[in-house]
Amino acid sequence: MPMRIAHALATMRPFFSFEFFPPRDDAGMEQLFATIETLRPLRPAFVSITYGAGGSARARTIELAKRVQREIGLTVLAHATCVGSSRAELRGLFDDLARAGIKNVLALRGDPPRGEAAFTPPSGGFGHATELIAMLHRNYNFCIGAACYPEVHPEAQSPESDLAYLREKVENGAEFLISQLFLDNDAYFGFVERARAAGIGVPILPGLMPVTNYEQIKRFVAMCGAKIPPKLQVEMESRLGDASAVEDLGVAYAAMQAVELLRSGAPGIHFYTLNRSPATRALVSAMLAASAWRPVPARTQRARHTLIT
User: Fold this and answer.
1) In the annotation, is 19 catalytic?
2) Which of 57, 68, 134, 155 is the most buried (most CB within 10 A)?
3) Computed over its alpha carbons, how large is the radius of gyration of the chain?
């Protein structure tokens, strides 16, 4: 049975989740469906399906979300963004998801469409995630999630204004937060402490992306305002030209990140899979083998006060 993610975060340990994006064609969809099947034995708390703005992309998002929950039996978190949709179109999307038994929605503003420098609210649509969250909270019974940025949203005027906006998301109905990717755990720990001090009390799920391609991760961190730690950058650059060595290092580094996060009290790990299973499967299998979610006694008390709701 699908669960509300806020309840799962409060009751499940270990807690892992995986993010996927809808492929562009039917062949890619079937390949992704097979990938999700290979990850099912790891018993993820949920899988998230990113949102494709526009007619055919939006339809694939809905189709994939429905199939994963109906045929594979996993709890689904369906993404929704303000990009390219009017309020009426979004209501149609949410009505469809509700009829399909989807219980969880991640409400996002979304990035500007390709080729546009800044986000422009669509005609008859929303300009901010806070507005989308408020509408969902008023009209539906979804468990609503929102995004957060440990190293500050690239468009934020300051860390303080970023936290104020995040608090507004929670006040409008967000029940949990998923962080953008980060490669320095101190960024997450510091962010959670600042969020708690700002009155944000909902669970904050850290998002990790194993580095399997160095040029690709450089693009991702540039887009989301994250940083590559200098020592990791040196080690990655020393392996350029050897794709296997880069991937091995990336998986090992992400495993160390995950162990520290879990043993310091993070409620779980959300993995950005890029629709690939080997790295994610290796990481989660290692976490399960090591019982990595059991806190280290010396840090348990601090973790309970700063990282867990």
Assistant:
1) yes
2) 68
3) 19
Question: pLDDT digit string (tens) for 101-130?
Answer: 999 999 999 876 666 667 777 788 898 999
User: Position 129: which residue type?
Assistant: A
**For residues 278 and 281, what is the distance between their CA atoms, to the nearest angstrom?**
5
Q: What is the mean pLDDT of the chain?
A: 88
**Active site residue: 19, 151, 175, 247, which one?**
19
Place of tokens 């969902």: 136
How far apart CA 88 and CA 86 sit, in angstroms, is 5
Class of the domain covering 5-306: alpha beta
Domain borders along the chain are 5-306
